[in-house]
Amino acid sequence: MTALLRYQSGLLLRSQRWLAPLLLYVAVVGVGVRAGEPVLGALGFTAAALLPVAAWSVRICLTQEPPAARSVIAAAAGRGRAHLAALLTGTAWPALVGTVAVLTVTAVSDRRGVTALSAGSTGLLAALTCALTGAAVGALSSRPFLPAPGWSLTALVLGSLLALVTTGSPAKHAMTALITGARTTTAAPPLLACAGAVLLVAVAAGLSCRATARLE
Q: How far apart are CA 89 and CA 156, in angstroms?
């Protein structure tokens, strides 16, 4: 699996397709977050903006290989394992970017009433929750379920929006915790939401890998 992850990461970096979601995230956070504003509200916005970026990144990794190369890798390592490596790669890079963003926002925001450690840990958990939820959206809105680019992008956008506003979504739960914390200046790490996101992405990855092995 390590070799597959290196292969997928190399493909992603060389293709430069990661630039578009990264620049989008930097632009959204740069416009939406101001230095000196309450830290928990800023972290909530930072984490929420990561969800569609993670979904986009996963879709990029799932579709970046030419069909011939995909067939060779599938024959060597197994179609399910190759698909899982692409999913993990597409999830890991947004999570890393989100970690940097959370630490930066924590450093420049107003932390009155909240310690840097509690704010940072809460923000990191919220960012991880949104990244994992976005990864689940990306896995279910790409191949093998929706190979057509138009339908895939439509499902990705709608799925990301629903994941942010639907009651019961781990991302929505994490955002609610941060919004409530911003009002009461109490940092409550969204542990339950993060656990739900882990379960959600595990189910989505399992379905996607199994469907790939059967349909492709």
A: 18
